[in-house]
Design goal:
Layout (H helix, E strand, L loop, with lengths): L6 E7 L14 E9 L8 E10 L7 E10 L7 E11 L3 E10 L4 E13 L5 E14 L3 E6 L2 E2 L4 E8 L6 E10 L2 E5 L1 E7 L4 E10 L3 E13 L3 E14 L5 E10 L2 E10 L5 E10 L2 E3 L2 E6 L3 E11 L3 E12 L2 E12 L5 E11 L2 E10 L5 E8 L5 E3 L5 E7 L4 E10 L5 E10 L2 E10 L16 H33 L7
Parallel strand pairs: 10-17
Antiparallel strand pairs: 1-8, 2-3, 3-6, 4-5, 4-7, 7-8, 9-11, 11-15, 12-14, 12-16, 13-15, 16-17, 18-19, 19-23, 20-22, 20-24, 21-23, 24-25, 26-27, 27-31, 28-30, 28-32, 29-31, 32-33
GO molecular function: protein-glutamine gamma-glutamyltransferase activity
Keywords: Membrane, Transmembrane, Transmembrane helix
Organism: Haloarcula mannanilytica
Length: about 500
């Protein structure tokens, strides 16, 4: 990248050399040559304001034929500008004539301003010379041009930074950016001034017409020393990528009961932002809310919620996202299914315990749906091998909220080779009566006892008959020990049992 250049020039006026020439009637000189700007840059126009004076002691007017500015010394003649037919100067009068020149290279310039005239009194030719030394040095405020990644057809941005490293303030600062094969949507920034060692930033925006290389050129225009306008440029080459479209939709059903919705994730895998993103869903038996996103940046994902109203428990839907990518309108789609999940009762945590000649079945009526289940009733089903028993032939659970449970206990007697107890659960969901049946295995649930051997011998029977006696004795012994320990800790002297 080219470095910014600055300009410095020094003017050394060797002196006014009034020259009296042949013909005694005219006494004239070049009294002054004022150079502007005093510190020119290469290629910059320099004005040499030349003042020619015909002194008061002259006896005749001085006719000015030509005034020229030339390179002094060297082989050949290098003349930068010549003006002609300027009229006459009377004695005691002056004539100011501007000459302009520009110098393509930097360095010291040894110049001469030459006046070609004629003595109107005696007709003799008159030639006046004035030496000028000029130092041209390339020096501008520094410019840096930076550009973000760009994509064909997509507006991108950049900025120009101007740092004033000159030894004086610059004014009327203007930065303009133009490019080849790009459309500039923001190209110009103006500042009133930049102080010595100060800086400014000029943002710009552009849209490449196509993929590939494009050049951007920033031009800095400014004024220095009050009235000298300078210009300098900086060019950079950018590489614009081809536009890539890649947008995907991912859906998730959310909510509970009839309050259902679709959560839609819009993933922008394109290499440019997408704008005016309208997300919607269409279904024959459901209606959905629409959501508008202003934009989704490249390589990012945004989520929206589409609230749904279902006419049936299940709805197949087509989800779409219409969006603008560059100058084109595109669409992404996906298919999904949303369901309304009503209250549903399941029996969980079942436990079967034998109590004498009956079975106690305990557990929880759990609502695995997303709406309340009302009037929940758990009953033992009467079959050839199973009979409901007291004290709980059935159990009225009542209402079970969604994602909650209520415990229950029912009793049954079994005959023959029964291996399970059938339970029936009835309940209301959205004013609709539902019935479910569960078979509870007797020998597979926690706490379940083995079915006793009805034809067992006397020994087995004696052991079974003595078991309650052993249990009662053990419990009595534990009670006595507990009382003794309690009395001992309290420090009682008399212990009575």
């Amino acid at each position: 990248m080219r470095r910014g250049v600055a300009v410095l020039a020094c003017l050394v006026v060797v002196g006014s050399l009034p020259l009296s020439v042949a013909g005694a009637s005219v006494n004239a000189s070049i009294s002054n040559v004022e150079v502007s700007p005093s510190s020119p840059a290469p290629g910059e126009t320099v004005t040499f304001e030349t003042t020619v004076r015909n002194l008061e002691n002259s006896d005749a007017p001085l006719e000015i034929n030509d005034i020229a500015i030339r390179k002094a010394g060297g082989s050949g003649i290098t003349e930068y500008e010549r003006v002609s037919d300027l009229g006459s100067i009377s004695p005691g009068s002056t004539l100011e004539v501007p000459l302009t020149a520009s110098f393509e290279s930097s360095g010291s310039k040894d110049l001469r301003v030459i006046v070609y005239g004629r003595d109107r009194g005696n007709g003799n030719n008159v030639e006046l010379r004035y030496p000028v030394k000029l130092n041209v040095q390339e020096r501008h405020p520094q410019m840096d041009l930076s550009v973000n990644d760009s994509v064909a057809g997509i507006e991108s941005s950049g900025e120009v930074t101007v740092a004033n490293g000159l030894d004086s303030r610059i004014t009327n600062v203007e930065v303009a950016v133009e490019g080849e094969g790009v459309e500039m949507t923001q190209s110009r920034t103006v500042e009133s001034s930049i102080a010595e060692n100060g800086s400014m930033t000029a943002p710009f925006r552009f849209r490449p017409d196509s993929a590939g290389e494009h050049s951007l050129t920033a031009t800095l225009s400014y004024t220095i020393a009050g009235d000298t306008t300078r210009n300098t440029t900086r060019t950079t080459v950018i590489e614009s990528d081809p536009l890539r479209n890649s947008v995907e939709l991912d859906t998730t059903a959310v909510g509970s009961g009839t309050d259902r919705a679709l959560r839609v994730a819009v993933s922008n895998g394109a290499n440019a932002p997408i704008t005016d993103v309208m997300v919607a869903a269409d279904s024959e038996n459901a209606t959905f809310q629409r959501v508008l996103l202003e934009n989704v940046s490249a390589s990012t994902t945004r989520q929206v919620r589409l609230n749904a109203t279902l006419d049936e428990p299940r709805a197949d839907a087509t989800v779409t996202a219409n969006y603008d990518l560059g100058t084109e309108t595109e669409q992404a789609t996906t298919e999904t299914t949303i369901r309304s999940v009503p209250g549903t009762i399941d029996l969980t945590g079942l436990d079967v315990v034998r109590q004498g000649g009956r079975l106690q079945i305990s557990g929880s009526a759990s609502n695995v749906g997303s709406t309340d289940a009302d009037s929940v009733l758990v009953s033992v089903v009467d079959t050839e091998t199973v009979t409901p028993a007291t004290p709980g032939r059935d159990y009225f659970v009542g209402t079970v909220p969604d994602s909650d449970f209520v415990s229950f206990n029912v009793y049954a007697r079994t005959e023959g080779n029964a291996t399970s107890v059938p339970l029936e659960v009835t309940y209301l969901v959205d004013d609709t009566r539902k019935t479910q049946r569960f078979d509870v295995a007797i020998d597979q649930m926690g706490g379940a006892a083995q079915q006793p051997d009805q034809d067992g011998g006397n020994e087995g029977g004696s052991q079974n008959n003595m078991l309650p006696v052993f249990v009662a004795g053990g419990l009595a012994l534990l009670v006595v020990v507990g009382v003794l320990v309690r009395r001992y800790r309290r420090g009682d002297d008399d212990i009575e049992v």
